[in-house]
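Module 6 notes. Inverse folding takes a fixed backbone as the condition and produces residue identities as the prediction. Think of it as a translation problem where the source language is geometry and the target language is the twenty amino acids. Below is one complete input and output pair. Work through it position by position during the lab.
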């Protein structure tokens, strides 16, 4: 296999938001998406609308679940595209953040990526063409108030991306991260609700607060992130390796 056509493409968190947009986009390139997440019903409903897609239950924090899920994904051939998109976020002042909240975010956002990537490492290393795309965040590129745990996890994910890109550079696989600003998904919806609750502002003002982080003054659409993933999956993008690509409207600070 020399490109995404007929490639088995696992997308964690593929039933919603950014992951779902990526699954649709990769299917349009001829890939066979495997949507993973904890909510099987939601995954099956999403997969039903995507050509050649399958839904497989997977909790990325549970090593047994990851093993079982990736064995199912590999049943129709090696996994040569892996989009590590599953992620969680919350916000707390640092001095009120407890150990559980800290560890939960690292477990999904960093260790989860380690588990999923290791589960298909042999496939990726052996392939003539393969891609790993880690959905990080602008929070992996700079700091932000009240999200120390999330920032640490996404900085860690970018570190893992760069290390693996170096380790596998002589193989057919590239490893890159995409770093979106605020994207219009359930995760951003939670942030909007939190701002409304904590500041008493109305919905428009809360959205404006998030949009302010983007020089283009808007929330990003999931399809824009999916387009970056599609570009990374093109065979012609093989020189792009170990990068953390911002999809954020040009934020520099
Ligand atoms: P979302 O709709 O909330 O998606 C998160 C996905 O992760 C869900 O599909 C969820 O599926 C899955 N997930 C969570 N915990 C999981 C677990 N333990 N095992 C397996 N799957 C799990 O939000 P989104 O915005 O599309 O987020 C996707 C990625 O983009 C995340 O990594 C996030 O950090 C990143 N991101 C988002 C934004 C933004 O503003 N939205 C900005 C930058 C980066 P289940 O509930 O079915 O498990």
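Target side of the pair, the amino acids:
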């Amino acid at each position: 296999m020399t490109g995404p056509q007929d490639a088995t493409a696992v997308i964690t968190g593929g039933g919603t938001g950014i992951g779902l947009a990526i699954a649709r986009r990769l299917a349009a390139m001829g890939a066979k998406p495997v949507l993973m997440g904890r909510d099987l019903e939601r995954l099956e409903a999403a997969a039903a609308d995507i050509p050649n897609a399958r839904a497989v239950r997977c909790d990325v924090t549970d090593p047994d679940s990851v093993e079982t899920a990736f064995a199912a994904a590999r049943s129709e051939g090696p996994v040569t595209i892996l989009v590590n998109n599953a992620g969680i976020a919350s916000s707390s002042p640092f001095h009120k953040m407890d150990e559980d909240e800290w560890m939960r975010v690292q477990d999904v956002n960093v260790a989860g990526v380690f588990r999923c990537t290791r589960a298909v490492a042999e496939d990726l290393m052996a392939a003539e063409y393969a891609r790993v795309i880690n959905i990080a965040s602008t929070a992996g590129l700079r700091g932000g108030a009240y999200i120390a745990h999330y920032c640490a996890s996404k900085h860690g994910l970018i570190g893992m991306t760069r290390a693996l890109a170096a380790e596998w550079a002589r193989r057919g696989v590239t490893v890159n991260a995409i770093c979106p600003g605020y994207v219009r998904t359930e995760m951003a919806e939670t942030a909007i609700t939190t701002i409304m609750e904590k500041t008493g502002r109305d919905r428009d003002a809360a959205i404006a607060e998030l949009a302010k982080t983007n020089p283009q003054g808007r929330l990003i659409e999931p399809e824009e992130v999916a387009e970056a993933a599609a570009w990374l999956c093109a065979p012609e993008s093989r020189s792009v390796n170990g990068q953390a690509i911002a999809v954020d409207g040009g934020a520099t600070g």
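Reference fact for the lab report: The mean pLDDT is 97.
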